[in-house]
Amino acid sequence: MAITSMTSFVFSMVLGFFSIAAASARGPIIGVFAHPSSHYGEYIAASYVKWVESAGGRVVPIPYNAPKPYLEQLLPQLNGLLFPGGAATVNDRAE
């Protein structure tokens, strides 16, 4: 039996649907930037990892000194980024 182009198209659409459904079932992939540390080289606070995972996401650590080619390959594969930090003054309007 010959496979028609319509059958091939439908089969491709079904596979694509299941691929998307499986990806969304695993949750978003969130990159978290690491901080430099004199004791550990670099680290990510456990609270950030727990927070992302509690929302159903998966954490991918991003080294603080990652080379540009590494980032260019990694970033398109992520669904979001978490920029850890605090104690920053942020203006809510331009002056």
UniProtKB/TrEMBL annotation:
Its EC number is 3.4.19.9. Residues 1-25 form the signal peptide. This is folate gamma-glutamyl hydrolase. It comes from Peronospora effusa. InterPro entries: Class_I_gatase-like, Pept_C26_g-glut_hydrolase, Peptidase_C26. Belongs to the peptidase C26 family. One of its GO terms (biological process) is tetrahydrofolylpolyglutamate metabolic process. Keywords: Hydrolase, Secreted, Signal.
